[in-house]
Amino acid sequence: MVDRMASSTLQDLPPLPSYTLTPRPSMIPGVPDIVCQLLAPVIAYWVVSGFFHVLDVYDLCSQYRLHTPAEVLKRNHVTRWEVFRDVILQQIIQTAFGLVVAYFDPVETIGKEQYDIAVWGQRLRLAQGYIPKLLAAVGLDALALGGKVHNTYPQLSGALSGGAYATTTFAPWELSVAKFIYWIGMPLIQFTVAIFIVDTWQYFLHRAMHMNKFLYTTLHSRHHRLYVPYAYGALYNHPIEGFMLDTLGTGLAYLMVGMTVRQGMWFFTCSTIKTVDDHCGYAFPFDPLQHVTSNNAAYHDVHHQSWGIKTNFSQPFFTFWDRLLNTAWTGGDISARYERDRIAAQKKVDADTAMKASVVNSPEFNAERAKQQARSSQRQVLDDKQGARVIAEEAREEQEVKQSLRRSTRRKSGFDAKAISDRMAGTLHSRSPTILHAD
């Protein structure tokens, strides 16, 4: 009997079912799935960013902050409004690109699921044909083993016999495994490959933007105005960089692995949440996103510091490219560097506070009243017989003082090291986002 079943499996496979395709109904009635795909990442971005922003504003969970509020205030070279504006612009570009891609995509259909599951069942049946050969390689007689367990475990007997079953349909275990492969296994593989594509795309493009001076000064330097990252600054980029790095990278991964619209919605949303979490500025011990992968807020924050800007390029998921290409931070303990920056920022805040306190009791200045007083004084002087002469003398004295200052400036040496140093420092400070770390 075993011999008969073994020969039949080579001749026959369970038939594939017929199917009828129909358009996939919307996940939310009245809202196309493509709209959900494009809106879900945007909503997730602001919900998660809003959570971290509340922590910032009310100084909650401060023990887990990577930077102090003073550092956010004094070390960043861009206002929160500018960050918000540029992020909105990038999300508009992302949405427009998604609509263009969706326009060329065919309409998604359903009805072929059971057929595809049966295809995987056939593949499993064909794969069983190699079991006797594999067991024979280690000295076991698969057909004899199948005959011994045929009455007790008929499905195991069929598998050991090379996929020979008494019926012409799929065995229950074959259908179960085929369903698992179709509904869970393949989507997991698609997500894994898509993550690899995104990490690879972003690593090499991100690294190029640091190694190439033109790309850095023209595009990427804008993102590095945030020396102290915060959550909703995750997508703060030059619009061209944002499109190339984030929109195009995830879009290509989505298309290359053949995701459905709903799979793409989850992939884009997860990528967005991970990017926000990497810029949140908090190192939570209970945040799963910061422990599932080695790339987290603490890892990426090093890249935003002046001393770590040429390291830790990987984003947003894993760090394998940094490890393979030796671009991970290897400078040892960074606590002293962080403490130095905290102290420097706090000193600036304290100096500003002291300056404001020194004028807290000064009388309120009324500009309009001051103008009225000036006009009244001018009329009084002009009405006086000697008024015109007094005004002329004051004007002449003021002109003599200006001329004296110009002459003294020309008599000075042409080389003033301190003045040149101060001027260069001011220039570098004002342009630091574009040139300090371009080389």
UniProtKB/TrEMBL annotation:
Ion transport listed as a keyword: no
All copies of domain Fatty acid hydroxylase, residue ranges: 192-327
Molecular function terms from GO: iron ion binding; oxidoreductase activity
Domain of life: Eukaryota
Species: Exophiala xenobiotica
Name under which the protein is recorded: Fatty acid hydroxylase domain-containing protein
Biased composition (Basic and acidic residues): 381-403
Cited Pfam families: FA_hydroxylase
Compartments where located: Membrane
GO biological process annotation, one example: lipid biosynthetic process
CC terms in the record's Gene Ontology section: membrane
Alphabetized UniProt keyword annotations: Membrane, Transmembrane, Transmembrane helix
Segments for region (Disordered): 363-439
Membrane spanning residue stretches: 34-55, 180-205
